[in-house]
Amino acid sequence: MNTRYASLRDRWRHIIFGTDTRAGRRFDQLLILAIIASVVAVTLDSVQSIHQRHGTLLYAAEWAFTVLFTLEYMIRLWVSDRPLRYARSFYGVVDLVSVIPTYLSLLLPGANYLLTIRALRVLRVFRVLKLAQLMDEANQLGSTLVRTRRKIGVFMFAVVVVIIIFGSLMYVVEGPANGFTSIPRSIYWAIVTITTVGYGDISPQTPFGQAVASLAMITGYAIIAVPTGIVSAEMSRAHMVKRYERECPNCHRHDHDPDARFCKQCGTGLPRPEAPQGS
Amino acid sequence: MNTRYASLRDRWRHIIFGTDTRAGRRFDQLLILAIIASVVAVTLDSVQSIHQRHGTLLYAAEWAFTVLFTLEYMIRLWVSDRPLRYARSFYGVVDLVSVIPTYLSLLLPGANYLLTIRALRVLRVFRVLKLAQLMDEANQLGSTLVRTRRKIGVFMFAVVVVIIIFGSLMYVVEGPANGFTSIPRSIYWAIVTITTVGYGDISPQTPFGQAVASLAMITGYAIIAVPTGIVSAEMSRAHMVKRYERECPNCHRHDHDPDARFCKQCGTGLPRPEAPQGS
Amino acid sequence: MNTRYASLRDRWRHIIFGTDTRAGRRFDQLLILAIIASVVAVTLDSVQSIHQRHGTLLYAAEWAFTVLFTLEYMIRLWVSDRPLRYARSFYGVVDLVSVIPTYLSLLLPGANYLLTIRALRVLRVFRVLKLAQLMDEANQLGSTLVRTRRKIGVFMFAVVVVIIIFGSLMYVVEGPANGFTSIPRSIYWAIVTITTVGYGDISPQTPFGQAVASLAMITGYAIIAVPTGIVSAEMSRAHMVKRYERECPNCHRHDHDPDARFCKQCGTGLPRPEAPQGS
Amino acid sequence: MNTRYASLRDRWRHIIFGTDTRAGRRFDQLLILAIIASVVAVTLDSVQSIHQRHGTLLYAAEWAFTVLFTLEYMIRLWVSDRPLRYARSFYGVVDLVSVIPTYLSLLLPGANYLLTIRALRVLRVFRVLKLAQLMDEANQLGSTLVRTRRKIGVFMFAVVVVIIIFGSLMYVVEGPANGFTSIPRSIYWAIVTITTVGYGDISPQTPFGQAVASLAMITGYAIIAVPTGIVSAEMSRAHMVKRYERECPNCHRHDHDPDARFCKQCGTGLPRPEAPQGS
């Protein structure tokens, strides 16, 4: 009995976490399809005309997908060797959060529209399709952003301070009569302006307010250069490091192309580039 | 007869595909002029006041250009050694699609305004004018974008997921009363916001909605740094590779300017840089 | 007596300027909390409904914080060895400006909403939390921006000239009837357009005006590349310089990772990287 | 007589074109002030309330400045050794164009508001103030933009084609009923959208139109990366080339800091960096 249980658990583990076996791949493909279908169903259900005609069907589909994904989540917990670690991982949290809105909608009507959070599950597609290259690119992008997070954080902190000051300045200058009814609302305006979105739902009316707003716009326009510069420089660096990190064991030459197999100077075989880290 | 047919076909090939002969260049120049004239005609015809005065003339011009371009397309197929390959190439498809709307407009009035797709044919101008330098730049730009397409693709995929989530969140927070009448419409709002376009046709009204929108705007403002960084790094890399790829045969020095003809260290003649690939 | 005075002054100096002692850190942490609480209080007070209910409490809090910060400012002046230098430093000016609006509001109602300028004091957080790394990043960002200030300045100067010309051109083309009531207002429109904010509160109505506006938009869209390029290049350079500045004392090899302790070529111990300058 | 004439002409040349003599510098400074005063006068005159009160004064000032600048232009022509070359240079054209609108306003009322074109004359400030460093930065920026003009040109050409196609597509999809009254107007909309300005004066109403518009926005958002990448890469390259171009005459080491006076490896004196070219 114990053996049968273990073998059953083992089989499920292969299906759910495996990406090498045929069953594992098929499961993953079906899962992606189910996720997309489920997001599309929720989206369509929010359109009034479709809701009136197919509401019952879509409601059934929503519950069917939710039950399915709940089962899947429990099986994942069951077959995982370290369930807590899975539960706390990015995908573990996403998997759980992807089923909650339906249950929540029993208490809080409308909560089910948050089911589109399931779209996050689709990110799994990189792992599923075994697109090693794409996976590699995604990892590179991710690690670049991780390495720049401190600089970007410092920058965003400074931007928030600037936004607060511009917001309250405009509140004093323009005042409630011109739509700047409170500092929080003025801060909202400052965000709309500095990010160059510019809805125009609130806009300065007095000449002095327009002058301050002009300053805010030019600030927003100029400082976008900062995060862009940070990310560009980091990516350039990553490129260069990658080229330099392989060395010819014979002539010690660096700067080989990523796909080079022999030293371009002396022809000695090069060590293989390291496989991309991370899952 | 066979010989005359072959020689006729040969002559047309030289005129249509050739860029070295006088006849070939003149044909290309006339073609570009015809394309521009045709696009201008369609554009003007859409202006009500011009349509009323010169409608018949423009209608005639439209058909004239279409018949001309159809003939040209058929001749291209005829004289090409591998007609299918031409038909499936970028320019082949554009050439075909550029004549369809007129015929389509017989069934579907208004389809003829899609004739501006012909503007794409003007891209041929690079080849026509034999602007080797411009062609080279265009190729470089193109190949950079091709090399970054995977990273950009991964990024856009993530952006789409973020847009879906912000869209449905705003649908729940703001609701139909404030213009967010369905999730698809809310997703449209999220795209308008995250790309920092900000029409203002739909904008958040509740304080909580404005807070979520602020988050979306800041996200959009910050992540523009990612594609920009990707392209910048790739272009920097391309620059560097170009400098490094030529090596002095005597002292093995790299890092020569693209227009250098002799090694800047020992004066030995350098190999010529490779000609830009591609047509 | 003199000794007691000196020791008291010394103790306060440690508390206020020190970041190593327990008392100094606790003081700094309380200060940050007080700053944030004070900014939040001002912000909330500007919301009409909150003002009506808790106006008196928030008014009291405002004065309490102001008195507290005034005392702190005076103590800083007192314990500082070179009070003038502190008073003229960035933080000295911010500290003073952070208390003025409350006193000003006695004469000029509404001035107290400018108290959010206090948010600037929060920038002190980097020093307080002893986040050496973050501090380093902030310094790097700062010094990059300082090094690019001339190029950015030249660019902004040119942009201002372009904005003035587009503004007056549109005033002539569109005129007061279409919302372009004066050149200053048209310049405001040009800023809104060239920074790609686009409120839509003023927009061109005539075909010719729309053509000029299109040109302004494309200009704004294209030239954003300039400051971004400036900052990116400067950051890339900073990265590279950092790698090159350490040299192996044995084999004179450069290009070591920032965290490398031994030469990657010959294994000789490397000099330690210089500590980040600045406080 | 001839000598007196020659010496007078010489003296004027020193005053007008010279930047080394005291008189030359003073003339330039006064000129800049006059230019700024003149632009401010034109700007203020366009404000209705100021025009009514000080209209006559400002009108007089406008003519005074115009006569002054006309005289200056003629003197420049007179004292220049090659008058035609000056007349055709950037500043020569600007100097002429800066006086024309006043004379034109006699025939065409309103043309005088174009006098703000004079703002372009202020660009002379770099030369005037002898800010060699600023001048150098401006030259660097200029030469970078000149070197990237072909790539940027190819990019803008492709963007224009994309804009034409999106514009006519929206004309067909949305039609005159939703504000897309003609293809030129739809093209205007496409420019507003792709540059992410987003006035909102025309915006898609139908779901399908919104889908097409979404595509246009995402396109605009993504391709801004291209010119930015071009400029960034070019600036990085310029930085690097600058470091590499000086070589130690003893040990042939490159990669010296711009301000280095001795080789950092062997201590030999380095050749001086070349002075910035251009006037």
From TrEMBL, chains A, B, C, D:
<dbReference type="Pfam" id="PF00520">
    <property type="entry name" value="Ion_trans"/>
</dbReference>
<feature type="domain" description="Ion transport">
    <location>
        <begin position="26"/>
        <end position="237"/>
    </location>
</feature>
<keyword id="KW-0813">Transport</keyword>
<keyword id="KW-1133">Transmembrane helix</keyword>
<protein>
    <submittedName>
        <fullName>Ion transporter</fullName>
    </submittedName>
</protein>
<keyword id="KW-0407">Ion channel</keyword>
<keyword id="KW-0631">Potassium channel</keyword>
<feature type="transmembrane region" description="Helical">
    <location>
        <begin position="30"/>
        <end position="51"/>
    </location>
</feature>
<keyword id="KW-0630">Potassium</keyword>
<keyword id="KW-0406">Ion transport</keyword>
<feature type="transmembrane region" description="Helical">
    <location>
        <begin position="208"/>
        <end position="233"/>
    </location>
</feature>
<dbReference type="InterPro" id="IPR005821">
    <property type="entry name" value="Ion_trans_dom"/>
</dbReference>
<dbReference type="InterPro" id="IPR028325">
    <property type="entry name" value="VG_K_chnl"/>
</dbReference>
<keyword id="KW-0812">Transmembrane</keyword>
<keyword id="KW-0633">Potassium transport</keyword>
<keyword id="KW-0472">Membrane</keyword>
<feature type="transmembrane region" description="Helical">
    <location>
        <begin position="57"/>
        <end position="78"/>
    </location>
</feature>
<feature type="transmembrane region" description="Helical">
    <location>
        <begin position="152"/>
        <end position="173"/>
    </location>
</feature>
